[in-house]
Write a structure and sequence with these properties.
Elements (H helix, E strand, L loop, with lengths): L1 H13 L4 E6 L15 E6 L13 E7 L5 E6 L4 E6 L5 E6 L1 H4 L17 E3 L4 E17 L2 E6 L7 E5 L16 E7 L4 E6 L7 E3 L5 E3 L3 E6 L4 E5 L11 E17 L9 E6 L7 E6 L10 E6 L4 E5 L2 E6 L10 E5 L9 E15 L12 E4 L7 E7 L11 E9 L11 E6 L2 E6 H4 L5 E2 L10 E8 L4 E18 L2 E6 L16 E6 L5 E6 L4 E7 L2 E6 L4 E6 L7 E5 L9 E8 L6 E9 L4 E9 L4 E4 L4 E5 L4 E10 L6 E8 L6 E4 L6 E3 L4 E9 L8 H4 L1 E11 L4 E11 L3 E5 L1 E7 L5 E8 L6 E10 L3 E4 L9 E3 L4 E8 L5 E11 L2 E4 L1 E9 L7 E2 L2 E7 L3 E6 L5 E8 L4 E11 L1 E5 L7 E8 L2 E8 L1
Parallel strand pairs: 44-51, 52-60, 53-61
Antiparallel strand pairs: 1-42, 2-8, 3-6, 3-8, 4-5, 4-8, 7-16, 8-9, 10-17, 11-16, 11-17, 12-15, 12-17, 13-14, 17-18, 19-24, 20-23, 20-24, 21-22, 21-24, 24-25, 26-32, 27-31, 27-32, 28-29, 28-32, 30-31, 32-33, 34-35, 35-40, 36-37, 38-41, 39-40, 41-42, 43-45, 45-49, 46-48, 46-50, 47-49, 50-51, ...
């Protein structure tokens, strides 16, 4: 304990902080990505099976955007997939996955009688997206002729209670299966999930053990983070809609259909998918916009959070939902939003919390080129004043031909577009703001009902010209829905959404209590606070109820912070009201800044900015920190100066060190242990980088870029890092290629060829010697070289060495040219070959007699008349390759050489007749 106290005192004396403060502030743009919304730093996604027609672009695509440059990681733990990318501020990045990676399984072509797999948990098959700073995330299934997507919800807004919205399978489940699906994704380990089947009375679910679950019955599973419980409906007109999902910890729920006919008797079908809103997000007022160009009203499904919920359409009572989930017409309602000749905006309202999901019908519903999609509607209570969204496509990528947005906004009292309703597209990395009325002056069509001051909500449609990131803002809250079409494709989802807990009236932001030590480290507690509410009787006692909604997120905004790292005790959003945190300083001698953002489930947030201005500290300075490019076995040295910049205090130090243990980096003239630097004192030293020799390891490990960081280890154990050191090891390559002179007549003038010496490496190649061996019939025009005066071949260049083949006698010849260099050897020897044939060429006359040569497809046959005899035969092609070679023990008048399958062409026949080698060309 005494040593600890002395150590703290030494640090405080050695490095007094000249300024240590914390203040609350509004950071420009930050509020857009805070609160309870679809922006976050962790998402759990999945995609159920889709009708798969073969296509080169069949894939699942994840689109990510952020206001900041931040690292984004996509992982699928069950498949050991891990992909890291970096966002471009105000632009879209894309992750592309194969169907076999993104889906738990593939069901193939929907035209085939392939039933869905039994309901089961797929271990660790969720797609997990994490980011260092807040992002928005959309998922898209994009196959040939079918597609849909959804807006992903971050982990901090997931809930424990859901009702499923899918769509019915219109088939008889014998010759075809187009099942409804829902997926429950684990966000936390050891989560108990209860699933109660709703939908249609005659449908069922097949369990993993072969048993069935009928409508109205329940089943339970325990799942862990990253697990996907995929459930498929079975039976004619099966529809999982109305099924209840209840868990003891937050989960994600994603639902839809393999290929839905909407309505069930209207072609054509299309894949539909949407992420469900937790029940705590539901409201009482929903505004449903018409889909552009459609001639009929959309279909909606309406759900109730509580039994006996009364709902109205455009202010007219339309019915009562009797149960909170369950069977159609009792636990949920499916209806058209109207039957006008021209579709109009519709308001769906209720006396208790409800949910509304919109369905776009198939093409045959009205003859308009459009395919089904499923789209979650956002309640008025969740509208926003500032949103950012992106299209499902990147510039120049595989996007949709037509992209639209429906804007639901509050018009002025005279029905015109307000001046403050602004639209921005990213141009040259910045948002270019334009009033909506300057893009299109038409206000659109009003919704039923007056809001405040007699003003009304309107629905207005815009077509987006390009793929990319967009942003909108207004004084009054609004909503935006994104949808689009391509050939036989479609998609639709809310572009954004505030996702606060509407079951509470909590209006207080979380409290942040903290203390800061002398190094600038901050320890504290984040606590969601409650407003006093009425007292209730619980277990016989009178207790004060709390309206606290629980913490939602605790984030360090890395893009706006420097030299701090956040650690906090894990908590479950919406369940835990308190967590402890630490902001740790990386380098106590460096000025630091931290922007800490905390949010509760009601969307109340607090932003606290911590700033530290550090006193002067030791520094390590060099005019150069890049060793440049070195060949293996070479070294380079740089000079550095260590200085105590403090003009008042001494600095005790132990050594100069590196951040990485790489033996290629070496400190020359290090300081001695326990050296005390006086104010302003300097120490000069060198750093040497020695590139490893090529024979020490695989060349791939030896070459490349190497980085390290130089620092000073103080007496108290703290380490201060300074300059980043960079070196590159790049070697030349040696590749030698020989030549084949093929066949030529003996005694003729020599033929010229070339040996190629190339350097495909990244550094100059130095050739210091040549070694020649083999037959003397080959000569080489070699330049003069030595260790002192090498030949230099630059990266990517070639040296050609002239070679002459001058045979005087028939035969086969070979020679080798070996090149000595400082390069990594791919091939250092060239093989030079050639064949010489006799200069005398015979015809069919021989010593007063004749001979014949025939080829029957299997053999070449020699046959002579009179006294001519054969004692040897060789057959070459025109490239000099030996096809047959035989010298006979006995002289014969006829002989056959087995050569099946010769192609048409000219061949050289070498015959030893009466002891003399002669040549003849034959044509086959």
């Amino acid at each position: 304990m005494k040593h600890f106290l002395l150590l703290v005192a030494a640090i405080a004396y050695m490095l007094p902080l000249s300024s240590l403060r914390a203040e609350e502030s509004e950071i420009e743009n930050l509020s857009l990505l805070l609160g309870a919304s679809n922006a976050g730093t962790e998402f759990l996604m999945t995609f159920h099976p889709c009708w798969e027609d073969p296509g080169p672009n069949n894939s699942i695509r994840i689109y990510v955007a952020s206001l900041y440059k931040t690292k984004v990681t996509l992982s699928i733990p069950g498949l050991a997939i891990n992909i890291v990318k970096e966002t471009i501020p105000n632009d879209v990045i894309e992750f592309i996955l194969k169907p076999t990676e993104a889906q738990p399984y593939s069901k193939g072509n929907g035209g085939l009688p392939i039933p869905p797999q039994p309901s089961q948990v797929w271990d660790k098959r969720a797609i997990i997206i994490t980011a260092e700073d807040p992002i928005i995330c959309y998922g898209m299934t994009r196959y040939k002729y079918t597609s849909d997507g959804y807006m992903a919800l971050p982990i901090n807004v997931l809930g424990t209670d859901y009702q499923v919205a899918s769509y019915a399978d219109p088939t008889n489940n014998t010759a075809q299966f187009l099942p409804s699906y829902t997926s429950i994704v684990g966000a936390y380990d050891n989560t108990t999930v209860n699933f109660k089947l709703g939908g249609k009375e005659n449908m069922f679910i097949i369990k993993e053990n072969g048993d069935t679950l009928k409508a109205g019955k329940s089943m339970t599973k325990t799942i862990n983070k990253g697990d996907v419980w995929l459930i498929a409906g079975v039976g004619p007109f099966n529809d999982l809609t109305g099924s209840n999902v209840n868990a003891d910890k937050p989960v994600a729920v994603v639902s839809g259909n393999f290929c839905a006919y909407i309505p069930t008797h209207i072609a054509a079908c299309d894949y539909i998918i949407e992420q469900e809103l937790p029940i705590y997000n539901w409201g009482k007022n929903y505004l449903v916009s018409p889909i552009s160009a459609r001639k009929n009203h959309s279909i909606v499904k309406i759900f109730a959070a509580e039994p006996m919920t009364q709902y109205s359409i455009n202010g007219v009572p339309a019915g009562t939902i009797q149960t909170a989930g369950g069977l159609i017409d009792r636990g949920y309602i499916e209806t058209r939003t109207g039957f006008d000749a021209t579709p109009k905006p519709v308001r769906v309202s209720s006396d208790k919390a409800i949910n509304v999901v919109q369905y776009n019908p198939g093409q045959q519903d009205d003859g308009v080129e459009s395919d089904p999609f499923q789209m979650q509607i956002i309640p008025i209570e969740q509208f926003q004043t500032d949103i950012i969204f992106n299209t499902p496509g990147i510039k120049g990528g595989f996007g949709f031909n037509d992209n639209y947005i429906n804007i639901v906004y509050m018009a002025k009292a005279d029905g015109t577009i307000p001046d403050d309703l602004m639209f921005a597209e990213v141009i040259n990395s910045d948002f270019n703001w334009i009033p909506i009325k300057n893009i299109s002056s038409s206000p659109g069509t009003p919704f039923y009902g007056d809001e405040k001051d007699g003003r009304q909500y309107y629905s207005k449609t815009l077509k987006l010209d390009n793929d990319g990131v967009y942003r909108m803002k207004a004084n009054e809250p609004f909503a935006v829905y994104a949808y689009g079409y391509d050939s036989f494709d479609s998609y639709g989802f809310p572009a954004s959404g505030r996702l606060i807990d509407l079951s509470s009236d909590d209006s207080l932001a979380p409290e942040v209590e903290y203390e800061m030590d002398e190094k600038g480290n901050i320890s504290g507690v984040v606590r969601d606070v409650a407003q006093p509410t009425a007292k209730v009787i619980k277990d016989g006692d009178q207790v004060q109820e709390s309206n606290a909604t629980g913490l939602s997120s605790v984030k360090l905004i890395n893009a706006l912070s420097d030299n701090y790292k956040l650690e906090y005790t894990p908590f479950i959003p919406g369940t835990d009201n308190e967590t402890s945190f630490q902001l740790k300083v990386h380098n106590m001698y460096k000025s630091s800044n931290a922007v800490l953002a905390v949010t509760d489930r009601r969307g109340n947030n607090k932003i606290v900015e911590f700033s530290i201005e550090a006193s002067p500290a030791p520094s390590i300075v060099s005019t150069e920190t890049n060793f440049g490019s070195l060949k293996s076995g070479k070294f380079q040295e740089l000079e550095f100066t260590l200085t105590n910049e403090d003009n008042t205090n001494t600095v005790p130090a132990n050594s100069i060190i590196f951040s990485k243990n790489d033996p290629q980096f070496e400190i020359i003239n290090n300081i001695e242990a326990n050296t005390v630097f006086q104010p302003g004192e300097e120490h000069k030293f060198k750093v040497r980088f020695s590139a490893r020799h090529m024979n020490e390891d695989d060349i791939k490990n030896i070459e490349g870029k190497f980085a390290n960081q130089i620092g000073i280890k103080l007496e108290n154990g703290d380490v201060l890092y300074f300059d980043n050191l960079v070196a590159e090891v790049a070697n030349p390559r040696l590749q030698v290629t020989g030549t084949n002179f093929a066949t030529q007549m003996a005694g003729e003038p020599g033929k010229n060829g070339f040996v190629s010496i190339t350097n495909p490496g990244l550094a100059d190649l130095l050739i210091t010697a040549f070694e020649v061996s083999g037959n003397s019939e080959f000569t080489f025009d070699l330049p003069t070289v030595s260790e002192e005066e090498p030949i230099i071949i630059a990266s990517g260049r070639e040296l050609r060495v002239k070679t002459i083949f001058t045979p005087t006698e028939p035969g086969e010849f070979a020679s080798t040219l070996k090149v000595i260099s400082d390069g990594y050897v791919i091939k250092d020897e060239a093989q030079i070959t050639g064949v010489a044939i006799p200069s005398s060429v015979i015809n069919d006359k021989l010593f007063g007699g004749t001979f014949s040569v025939n080829y029957d497809g299997a053999a070449i046959t020699f046959r002579a008349e009179h006294d001519a005899t054969l004692s040897g035969m060789k057959v070459y092609d025109l490239n000099g390759r030996t096809l047959f070679n035989s010298e006979l023990t006995n002289n014969v008048n006829s002989y056959s050489a087995s050569l099946p399958g010769l192609t048409s062409g000219i061949y050289m026949l070498h015959l030893k007749i009466n002891g003399i080698w002669m040549s003849k060309k034959i044509s086959i």
